[in-house]
Design brief:
Helix content is 26%, strand content 24%. The chain is an alpha+beta fold. The radius of gyration is 19 Å and the shape is globular.
Amino acid sequence: MTVDALTDVAGVRVGHATRTGGGWLTGTTVVLAPEGGAVAAVDVRGGGPGTKETDALDPRNLVQKVEAIVLTGGSAYGLDAASGVMAWLEEQGRGVRVGPDPSHVVPVVPAACVFDLGRGGDFRARPDAATGRAAVEAAAASAVGSVVPEGCVGAGTGAVVGAMKGGVGTASVVLPSGITVAALVVANAVGAVVDPETGVLYGELFQGRRVRYPEERVHEAACRRLAETAASHAAPPLNTTLAVVATDAELSKAQAQKVAGTAHDGIARAVRPVHLLNDGDTVFALATGVRALDAGDPLALNSVLAAGADVVTRAIVRAVWAAESVGLEGVGGGWPAYRELYGM
């Protein structure tokens, strides 16, 4: 049975650590690979990324597998959350073996951040190592194949898309070959996710099903509310859409990097514009290697590539649907959610 989430890739777990109230509106999300790690790669296309250990994922470099990936709020400060994940992994003896003792490991924990500083009211309220540890412990404690909480949780707690609330979303698909491809996103884009002419989420136009258009009067009211929200906030200096695309296919690092790159198409379908200088758009790919690609078909990877982009688009739509409005005084201000604006 599938749950339409990243956790449909067998052995992959997700944990959130969420901080709200008292100036906080941020958090961290950890994607925990099966023990022994998963082949990993990354593709960074935003002009303002905040990342850690991404060079290790280059196919030309030594490290082949990673045990976890960290997505976090707090801008570059929040990358400290990865230290807490590293500490936990070291305690479990999980990481790159560097000595004769099994405990001599160095966990390689790639991480990427979104900008949400001050959205809870306190510019200094941001994730740290303890937040990262809480998130990885939540992932480890979760059941295999469990439902992943979406919306304003983890790294999506303080997320904003355009002038409305963003968040975390996830989706999956099982291909005719039996291979599973899934994605988890943190939607925090400077670009818009809503068509200004109709009020439809851009991503819904690519999901192969009938699109339900909002009534004109509802859309006009939503546009006024969004304009008021945008006028009352200084433009955020940095924004980012993050994604992890996972599959149970057996991939090389180079193939995984191709998956990460193509998955950016999924962002471009759902967010306009993307990959700007003040975006940090970053996609990670994980491959657990359970199912082999058809060795007799040189184009067998194509189905995984196409599916990766599709599930990223759908995960962004789900992130926006699951988000809830926040109303805060002071630095953070209020951010309406799509469901509140359109009542759908």
